Amino acid sequence: MIKVLLFAHLQEEAGQAQLEINKEEITVEDLKKLLTAQYHLSKMDHVMAAVNEQYAVPEDIVKSGDTVALIPPVSGG
Questions:
Q1: For residue 70, pLDDT beyond 90
Q2: Do the beta carbons of residue 37 and residue 54 sit within 8 Å?
Q3: Alpha carbon distance 72, 6 (integer Å)
Q4: pLDDT tens-digit series, residues 21-57
């Protein structure tokens, strides 16, 4: 099981702050695609991912037991 933490608009779109994905392993890119399809999350192209508190690239593998944080870009002054 992979724990996914959602922030900002992703949390609002999914209707929850945390999801559990029943996969043994998946790439960050494929996880984003899966979440987009299942939860209709938008603007995932610009979302940063962190796996176990380390920033990840799309090709990184997420394994069962990992925690993934999906962090949309923020704006401000």
A1: yes
A2: no
A3: 9
A4: 999 999 999 999 999 999 999 889 899 999 999 999 9
Q: Are 61 and 26 in contact (CB under 8 A)?
A: yes
Q: Which of 40, 41, 50, 46 is nearest to 3 (CA)?
A: 50
By C-alpha distance, which of 14, 38, 35 is closest to 26? 35
pLDDT at residue 75 in the model = 66
Average per-residue pLDDT in the chain?
94
Token pair recorded at residue 64: 């069962």
Class of residue 34 by CB neighbours under 10 A (exposed 0-12, middle 13-18, buried 19+)? middle
47-61: b (≥16 Cβ within 10 Å) or e: bebebeeeebeeebe
- The answer to whether 38 and 20 have CB atoms below 8 angstroms apart is no
